[in-house]
Automatic annotation (TrEMBL):
Pfam family, one: Sulfotransfer_1
Example of a GO MF term: sulfotransferase activity
Similarity field: Belongs to the sulfotransferase 1 family.
The Sulfotransferase domain, residue ranges: 38-300
InterPro entries found in the cross-reference section: P-loop_NTPase, Sulfotransferase_dom
This protein's record includes keyword Transferase: yes
Domain of life: Eukaryota
EC number: 2.8.2.-
Upper classification of the organism: Eukaryota, Viridiplantae, Streptophyta, Embryophyta, Tracheophyta
Keyword tags: Transferase
Organism: Sesamum angolense
Protein name per UniProt: Sulfotransferase
Amino acid sequence: EQQDNWDGLPMSKFQGFWCPVFVLHPLLCFQRNFKALDTDVLLASVPKSGTTWLKALLFSIVSRDRFPIDQSPLLATNSHRLVFSLECFYYAEDDDPDLGNLSRPRLFSTHLPHQALPSSLIESNCKIVYVCRNPLDQFISEREFLLKNRLWPDKPYGEVLSLDEAFDMFCDGVQAFGPFWDHLLGYWNASLENPDRVLFLKYEDIKRDPLLKVKKIAEFVGLPFSEEEEKEGLVGDISRLCSFEKLKDLDINKNGIHFGSVKNNSLFRKGDIGDWQNYLTPAMAERMKTTLKAKLSGSGLILDI
Ligand code: A3P
């Protein structure tokens, strides 16, 4: 089954999800060749759910014995260059990237749904941190990002669909790596089955109490903060370093290039909860609430809308 996304991105329904066509080959290489280590940490998310933020937090947490806060590589490097996306890695390196030299624990990210993760990863003891976001904010964040950045300008794009048409597709489950609810449910169910392996986080919860979540992530990846570190205020330092306000204003994120013609500054838009209210009508929100109620029914997963 083939369909273009509202921005023209060609997608194919593959292994139960809408896979961007350019990801098909890297996905198969990743599934076939990736050898997970028990010490690996994988960050998983639907795009525009807080990946950039969580990469910064995870990097700061696991590398805190190597870099004092004022010498953090995050001050000069965008977090996407410190924590690689496995799809992009396999896309760029053509089949078999060399991942052996990365410092331990190796940190990676993916937008793939749980059912598409390589068996090596599922069978290992590696940790998976999942971050999700209120779907209406995710939708608006993605729309605003893609309207500003035509990701594959060399590809023959179709016409960009209107907000109403794009929202219809979203409510029908048509989006890159979606349906949205299936993506969340895959990791949600895995976190219930194996809470030591999968940590399920919500963007809104981290935003409301970043210190609590920084401690939780550190414990989850097996690197809890010592009493001394807590007394020194390291948890607060990491949370401030990785905050939207701090990262957004760094030179590297104001001026640096993410990839192609996409600038790092497009990764930092508003960083708010509830920005969807500036774009979508209450009726649209009701429609998504009704859809989610049906799709998440019986799962125990409740999202803030
Ligand atoms: P908005 O477009 O709503 O502002 P991703 O990193 O998965 O692409 O998600 C991007 C969204 O996360 C954008 O949301 C962006 O502004 C927000 N974001 C980026 N860095 C952040 C941070 N340090 N803290 C909170 N939100 C952040």
